[in-house]
Amino acid sequence: MIPELGHFALACAVALAFAQGVVGIFGPSLRDARALYAAPVLALSHFAAIGFAFLALVWAGVVSDFTVENIADFSSSAVPLIYRISGVWGNHDGSILLWCLILSLCGTAVALFGGGLPASLRSRVLGVLGLVSGGFLLFTLTVSDPFARLWPPPLEGAGVNPILQDPGLAFHPPVLYTGYVGFSVAFAFAIAALIEGRIDAAWGRWVRPWALLSWCFLTAGIALGSWWSYYTLGWGGFWFWDPVENAALLPWLTGTALLHCAIVVEKREALKAWTVLLAIATFSLSLSGTFLVRSGILNSVHSFAAAPDQGLFILALLGLTIGGSLLLFAIRAPVLAATGIYAPISRESALVLNNIFLCAIAAVVFTGTLYPPFANLLFGIQLSVGAPFYNQTVLPLTAPIILAMGCGPLLAWKRADLLPALQRLWLAGAAALLVFLVLSATRHVIAALGLAGGAWVVIAALTDLAERVRLFRVPLGNSVARLATLPRGAVGAALGHIGFGVSVLGIAGMTLAVQKVVVLQPGQSTELGGYTWTLQDIHDAPGPNYSQRVADITVDGLTLHPSRRFFTAQHVITNDAAIHTNGFQDIYAVFADEPAGGGAELRLNRHPMAPEIWFGGLIMALGGFLSLSDRRLRVGAPSRKKPEGAVA
Amino acid sequence: MSPLRRRLLFGIPLALAVAGGGSFYTILRRMQEQKYDPHALPSPLIGKRPPTFSLPGAGGMQGFANTDIAAPSKPMLVNWFASWCVPCLQEAPMLAKLAASGLAIWGIAYEDDPQALAQFLAQNGNPYQRLAADADGTTAINWGVYGVPETYFIDKTGIVRWRYAGALTDDVVASALNPLLARYS
Amino acid sequence: MRKLWLALALLPALALAQDMVTRDGVTLTQAQETRAEAIGDQLRCLVCQNESIEESNAKLAGQLRGIIRQQVVQGVPDQSIMNYMVQRYGIFVLLKPPVSPLTWLLYAMPVLALLLGAVAFFAARRGTAPPAPLTDAERARLDELL
After folding, report:
1. Helix (H) or strand (E) run with residue A286 in it
2. Burial profile B5-37: b = 16 or more Cβ within 10 angstroms, e = fewer
3. Do B141 and C87 touch (CB under 8 A)?
């Protein structure tokens, strides 16, 4: 019964979403107050409908209702409760429903918190969101229906993929999708503004918090995904340049550029065309990423098994959304003429430079990801573009960004003097040089450069904060007081840069990682990374839906328990890495195999600075959230005070 | 800049998107029509002779070497398979049908156990004129075999003309194999 | 062949001098293992979805790793080992495609993107000229207002 109600709610959601779309966009032109204020109500009803549908599917998963085909194919009653819930979005149909849910949540957020916006703009933003939602809900309902029934139901479901049975994975898709899909709001703002024909400083101020919020979630989502693959997949890698990872990185790159551009639009009314184009591009990349993963076009570890037919439907949706928005962008070109001017050396220029490099990296990653299918189409050849290519092309492009990130915040708007700014950064420069010299002695040039770059960024951001509180130029107590009253946006931005620097330190440190694959008998030891690793024992430790062999290893006074799990239902073996961290280094052991001759085949790793990769991501996201709490971002358009004696 | 020039400049992203969309559409249509498989590998052996090898017999039959397929009297298939491979099981009736129609099929058992192989042949029939065993997979690597089943089409001059990775089905036979037989007979 | 015997003869001496590891059935020095891993990192595992043969647990990957290590021990140069793999599996096995007219667009993209960005930057700046200096009449009006 409940799945049927859920199915019905899904159908209602489609209708409500399209209604929201049409009324939202055309309502303001009707000059009728009811039409103007209808969109928020529709957005809330739309959210209620799809929320109910989603809960119905989750309920079916929790009670293991195998008449629902999706649950029968991707879940089982032997699976722990948390994975019966998170398994709902661990497959193609369920994840699209989650996508749609979050899209409607964005609309709800605008309806509830967009009170400071002019009514017509808010209506049109909701209208655009409604149309996009409607399209994807229609796709879900017709081609990708999670409520399809199976009769007679099997006695037991096929089970949740063992690799997905992990708490990290329960959180990764919702957080990532919130970021991914959250950029639909910035997109909707761009389209609404293009329709209205007005992009100005006020628009910049309104769009920034929404872009920032999505960016925070996307940063956290990518960091979570990377961390999860690090501790689950057992290789010790954290980024594989897999097409699906690239699909999440691309909107992050353009989204970061968008964030920085929006600041310039707000403060200086320049870079309007860039900002609008980036807002369109970021969400377009999110959509394209969704399409690519589900179409089967790409070779990826993450691909959902999908059909070209579904791919064609999504391609049509993409064509309408992206094609329509870019057409509007071209038609409204005259509106996007810049009005602010700035000198070649200025904060605007530094931001533009930053954007160019971020977009260049995005272009490289985009080309690399899509090159195999395009090469096949155009030249008939089958080739691979993998990690070696990306590492060699992307990493050099990050160097100018790292340099610019340090100076940028210290440059003045409109026209700045570079030399005084660089002089103020003497400490950052000296620290970077010192780090580089110390590390180049070890002959690891890439690590030396990376660690120097990370140090530069972190200390430069701290220098910016120090300048603002006039550290050492006024009594210390004054500085502390100033720190407390600094605008949160400034502290948030500094934290964002510090977080990035910390991640760079982590990634550079990882290039110094050491690894060894050995077969040890119980009692035997081996040396790696300055530690002695001893295999003590191998024993059994069965779990709720798996059998398990555990190896006990002692190293540096600690005991690690890497294990191998055998999931009976799916005939899958997973390796659970044992990781110990002291905050600045990870010790990582994997129980790879039990050879016929006895003992254990172990993969042992020492990863310097690994935790910093994800601490950095966390700090970036926290910086973003801190910026969001800045009171200035919540001031909306002033509303006209009603004249005395006027009739409402 | 005049409004028209500005519009044309700003129209560049649209043009790129349309080009991209058209390409994706073509790729998807090709996938639907089975003309493009992103997971398939073209074999570097196509247009060349198989590498040098000599494998012992299996299943009570005679093995063979590359010299034995250097100049077959008519086009033939070399079928790589194994008893532990599920698609090979599905392919067995099709191979039997092809062998019955007069097509010469020589088999190579990939990393297989002799007893399991004998059982497989007993249960599914033996369509092979000769059957060799590649126990450690070295010859397979030299051929560029990356999984089983794989079928190679060799013409009268001993040149490899086609490689199919996967179980032969009616579709594949009709769309790919029969035209090849017509062309190289 | 002589090189092989020489290498095998020296092996025990090397074992005393440096750490010997055994990986995929081949015993080699740590330095050789590092070199073999560097080669393996550039080769695609053909039966996996987007992994290198170093990362993969697949049997074929293990066999290919063994072959690479055997050749490294024999002193075969890196490029020859890569060619060995390409000969058998095509350029698909390389995780970084060879530079050829078919991949110019791919490799040129970093520079191309930067150029496009620079062009866009300068084109946009040219479009906005600084405001014309004030005429005398305007200056007089300004003084009046202030």
Report:
1. helix A272-295
2. ebbebbbebbeebbebbeebeebbebbeeeebe
3. no
Yes or no: say if B125 and B148 are a contact pair by the CB < 8 Å rule: no
Buried b (16+ CB within 10 A) or exposed e, A510-549: bbbbebbbbbbeeeeebebbebebbbeebeeeeeebbebb
Q: How close is the nearest chain C Cα to the Cα of B51, in Å?
A: 10
Do residues A217 and A366 share a domain? Answer: yes
Question: Distance between CA atoms of A130 and A47, rounded to whole angstroms?
Answer: 11
Is the domain of C64 the same as that of C106?
A: no
Task: Please report, as a single letter, which amino acid is at residue A31.
Answer: R
pLDDT digits 0-9 by tens, A337-393: 766 677 788 888 888 888 899 999 999 999 999 998 888 888 888 899 999 999 999
C63 touches chain B (CB under 8 A): yes
Q: Where does residue A269 fall: left (phi above 0), alpha (psi -120 to 50 degrees), or beta otherwise?
A: left
The answer as to whether A640 is a domain residue is: no
For residue C18, what are the contacts with CB-CB under 8 A and spacing of at least 6?
C29, C30, C31
ipTM: 0.86
Which chain B positions have a beta carbon within 8 Å of C46's beta carbon? 41, 146-147
Nearest-Å Rg of the Cα atoms of chain B is: 22
- Cα–Cα distance for residue pair A433/A450, rounded to 1 Å: 11
Alpha-carbon distance of A97 to A107, in angstroms, equals 15
Both C16 and C88 in one domain: the answer is yes
CA A42, chain centre distance (Å)? 28
Q: Which of C76, C93, C110 is at the close of a domain?
A: C93
Give the Cα separation of C67 and C46 in Å (integer).
15
| Residue A517 CA, distance from chain mean position | 33
- Chain A residues with beta carbon closer than 8 angstroms to that of B13: 277, 281, 326, 329-330
- pLDDT digit string, tens, across residues A103-148: 999 999 999 988 888 888 999 999 999 999 999 999 999 988 899 8
SS3 state of residue B70: coil
DSSP H or E segment with residue A119: helix A119-142
Contact partners, residue C15, CB within 8 Å, separation at least 6:
none
The 10 Å CB-count burial string (b at 16+, else e) for B43-53 is bbbeeeebeeb
Question: CA–CA separation, A615 vs A613, rounded Å?
Answer: 6
Dist CA A298 CA A305 (whole Å): 11
3-state secondary structure A333-390: HHHHCCCCCCCCCCHHHHHHHHHHHHHHHHHHHHHHHHHHHHHHHHHCCCCCCCHHHH
Residues B66 and B144 in one domain: yes
**pLDDT for the residue numbered B67:** 92
User: Beta strand pairing status for B54-55 and A600-608?
Assistant: unpaired
Neighbours of A192 (CB within 10 A): 26
Partners of C43 in beta bridges = C94
Question: Computed from CA positions of residues A317, A322, A328, A330, in that sequence, does the dihedral angle turn out positive or negative?
Answer: negative
Size of chain C in residues: 146
Instruction: Say if C120 is an interface residue toward chain B (CB within 8 Å).
Output: no
Do B22 and B106 have their domain in common? no
pTM of the model: 0.89
Contact A309, A143 (CB under 8 A): yes
* Owner of token pair 């647990």: C57
Same domain, A523 and A449: no
Chain A CB contacts of C105 below 8 Å: 367, 371
**Does one domain contain both C67 and C112?**
no
Same domain as A227, residue A317: yes
Distance from CA of C12 to the nearest CA of B (A): 28
Structurally, chain B folds into a number of domains equal to 2
Contact A385 C106 (CB under 8 A): yes
Q: What is the Cα–Cα distance from A16 to A138, expressed in whole angstroms?
A: 11
- Out of A388, A412, A436, a domain closes at A412
